[in-house]
Amino acid sequence: MKVLVIGSGGQVGCALLATAPSAFTITHASRAECDLADADAVRALIGDASPAIVINAAAYTAVDAAESDEEAARAVNAEAVANLVGAHAGKLVQIGTDFVFDGSANRPYQPDDERAPLSVYGATKAAGEDHLRPTDLLVRTSWVYGAGGRNFVTTMLRLMREKDEVRVVSDQIGSPTWANGLASTIWKLVGKEAAGTFHHSDAGVASWYDFAVAIQEEARAMGLLDRSAPIIPIRTTNYPTAARRPPFSVLDSSATRALLQDGYTHWRLNLWHMLREEKALG
């Protein structure tokens, strides 16, 4: 089966290429290679590749920048999905985000829970979801990171090397997710011919502060850091940002795990795997 992966230059796109099963014939394109907001360009890309399935890993993920650049965020996160649906009669696999929820829940969010995004980023991702057909597949995820990418883990490693102390928000709760694990789940869902909305994140929950502490502990043990920097927990109000974040964005992945019958992997174990990859990159 021929699969086109769009957004192959990003961390999820790279993970999809790295974990692709041999049963699939993969072609790919980065955002730089195709303007997804250009319907003609998208039709040409789909026509040349002739895929049975398209996986869209491209997204405008600069959450704070989106607040002052809604047009660009909407073009990539919403209009691009409409263009892909219009150009491709087969299944579209779209990667979604926990930011479509407002964080007011007291339990993990299920796939059919009401969306109420707090930010332009979340709103444009929700608008992209609305273009999907019942036969398409939406996989929402949270707090994604991968080796070699620009993400919370690599940012923390840099700050812990450079700063005398690191201040990290402790009142936003979610589930860190390794890009490779997400990619593996997507391929399994595709293999199951799944359609509709599914959630995937690593098992367990953490605050950003908890995540930072674990990053430093694992990185020190692995030799990625040669010293420990004090990590200071702070409240969201002490770290103002342009975009509002959901204070609680844990996703319920039980339906995904039940379909795939593959069990849960805790986020700390996957963090260890990612840091090993990061160390190998030098």
From TrEMBL:
EC number(s) given by UniProt: 1.1.1.133
Coiled-coil residues: none
List this protein's GO terms for biological process. Answer: dTDP-rhamnose biosynthetic process
Its pathway, per UniProt, is: Carbohydrate biosynthesis; dTDP-L-rhamnose biosynthesis
Catalytic activity as recorded in UniProt = dTDP-beta-L-rhamnose + NADP(+) = dTDP-4-dehydro-beta-L-rhamnose + NADPH + H(+)
Query: Which keywords does the record carry?
Result: NADP, Oxidoreductase
GO MF annotations in UniProt: dTDP-4-dehydrorhamnose reductase activity
Asked whether the keyword NADP is assigned, the reply is yes
Leading EC class: oxidoreductase
Q: How is the cofactor bound?
A: Binds 1 Mg(2+) ion per monomer.
Q: Which cofactor does it need?
A: Mg(2+)
Please give the family membership noted in the entry: Belongs to the dTDP-4-dehydrorhamnose reductase family.
Q: What does this protein do?
A: Catalyzes the reduction of dTDP-6-deoxy-L-lyxo-4-hexulose to yield dTDP-L-rhamnose.
Name of the protein: dTDP-4-dehydrorhamnose reductase
Q: Which organism is it from?
A: Aurantiacibacter gangjinensis
Q: What is the lineage of its organism?
A: Bacteria, Pseudomonadati, Pseudomonadota, Alphaproteobacteria, Sphingomonadales
